[in-house]
Amino acid sequence: MKAAVLTKFNEPLEITDFPRPTLKSGELLVRITAAGVCGSDVHMWLGEDPRTPLPMILGHEGVGIVEDIGPDTKKTDLYGREIRIGDAVTWDRAVVCGACYFCAVKKLPNLCFNRWVYGIHKSCTEPPHLYGCYAEYIVLVRDTKVISLADWEDLDHAALVSAGCSGATAANAIELAGVSIGDNVLIQGAGPLGLYLVAYARARGARHIIVIEGAPVRIDLARRMGADIVIDFTKTTEQERREAVLSATRGIGVDAGFEAVGIPEPILEGLRLVRKGGTYISVGTAVPAGTIPVDVYHDIVSRQVRLQGAWTNDTRHILEALTVIRENPDVFASFVTHRYPLSQANEALDVMRRREVIKAVIEPGRCVSATS
Asked: Strand order in 254-259's β-sheet?
């Protein structure tokens, strides 16, 4: 069973053979049909994520087909539907304990003390080895929350991989901001995370959805997803962007702003475009990326602005992501601009690193070169 293994940071992944695992009760062996290449994978590949153990199989976004089920197991999904061999499934990338303070008391499993994530926290040195999605197969442990896709017709697995990461994380951010009917919303960045934010803001009845982006293909997708105003930051100054936002919001500013670019520099601009009493959420920063100076009095306190981070998601947010995909299948399929076989996992990481694509997906069963 082949997998692309990260053995050294900033070096090519190595295709490695692993033995077929012996499943324990409650476990599933899933044949990977699509693995999303996330920006977080690039950070881990480059050694920028302190959580990364070596060697490891990258990939925390996955969809696949159940190949085998552990002994004495009747596995059901979140809705109580029995999982059978041959079923298409996706799953929550995080496994949590359910018993710590954050799980049991605060109902914030994304902050669980014992949380671990496929393709991020587990080395491949110990059996069953297959803990990441850049592989032909993955082993899902007993406590993994599985979602059956057996009732999805004409299913493009590649279009669904982002639901469990950027889609779910964006759902958490929108929920934290409390976006509601009539709100004006600003989204900085129109990668997968920002595009999901557009979809959720539209679904919640936002009045004006304003996106700041520089890549033409992302600008086009933001409009298709429902953005009312898209500002190209490569052709405007910060002052011109401010004037455009204030013009669209009667001089007040947006009710909610979202950083979805993964770097801290745009945060001050976005924070200052939020109205008094509004909310600004930083959701794109997944690894340490530096600091910015904030004028606490003028930018936050005197304007009573809420500045908050959004870290990953709960399982319910994955279901929300799958819902918006089902309602907009063609647009979400357009996210996937490049598809690669497992043997070209390094090329997939590299195009994501260069930001040449919106979404790259590894399809281990693919036998031809990358397509767009």
From this structure: 229-232, 208-213, 184-188, 254-259, 274-282, 306-309
